[in-house]
Amino acid sequence: MAVRRLRRFRLAGRSASRERSAEHDSDRRVRGEVRVTAAPLSLPLALRDGGAFFQSVAATPFHTTFRNDSLSCLSWLACAGVSVPILLRLVGITFLASFSTVAISLVRFRRTPAAFVAASMATYLLLFAFN
Fold first, then answer.
1. Helix, strand or coil, per DSSP, at residue 97
2. Which region holds residue 28: left if phi is over 0, alpha if psi is between -120 and 50, else beta?
3. I need a labelling partner for 104 at 20 to 30 A (CA). Which of 81, 86, 97, 125 fits?
4. How far lies 9's CA from each of 1, 12, 20, in Å?
5. Number of folded domains that form the chain
6. Residues 71, 110 within the same domain
7. Are 9 and 54 part of one and the same domain?
8. Which pLDDT belongs to residue 6?
9. How far is CA 29 from CA 90, 99, 118, 127, in A?
10. Which are the contacts of 61, defined by CB distance < 8 A and separation ≥ 6?
């Protein structure tokens, strides 16, 4: 009786490892497709002027000015009397929280369309609500 259970457990483990292997191959294929798509779009711009490319893609969100008329929770806090330097620190925390949300979703979520939508929703919610 115990031998049968052990065999079933081993067979179940083999099929699970095959599924994980197929999922890993699928992830590798998708990553390759993303690289093939992203490289022709961004590489010419980055090669033309790398400093300007970095400025427009990565540095601009950190240098934008705070606006009281924006539709975010930070503008509500500013109207309530919270000082602007504290709000700018909250913006930095927002970016860290968004990046950690992406990292957690890459590690913990399954590779399904529903998980992609959930991860995108959580990331955009953090960015748009607190930026």
1. helix
2. alpha
3. 86
4. 13, 5, 16
5. 2
6. yes
7. yes
8. 47
9. 37, 23, 22, 29
10. 95, 131
Q: Decide: 75 and 130 in contact? Cβ < 8 Å.
A: no
Residue-wise pLDDT tens digits, 19-69: 556 666 677 777 777 778 878 888 888 899 988 888 887 777 666 666 777
* Angle between helix 113-129 and helix 84-108 axes, rounded to 10 deg: 170
Shared domain for 69 and 131, answered yes or no, is yes
Identify residue 16 by its one-letter amino acid code: A
CA-closest candidate to residue 30, choices 130, 88, 124, 106:
106
Residues 58 and 61: their CA atoms lie apart, in Å, by 7
CA 99/CA 78 separation, integer angstroms: 25
| Backbone φ, ψ for residue 110 (5° rounding) | -75, 165
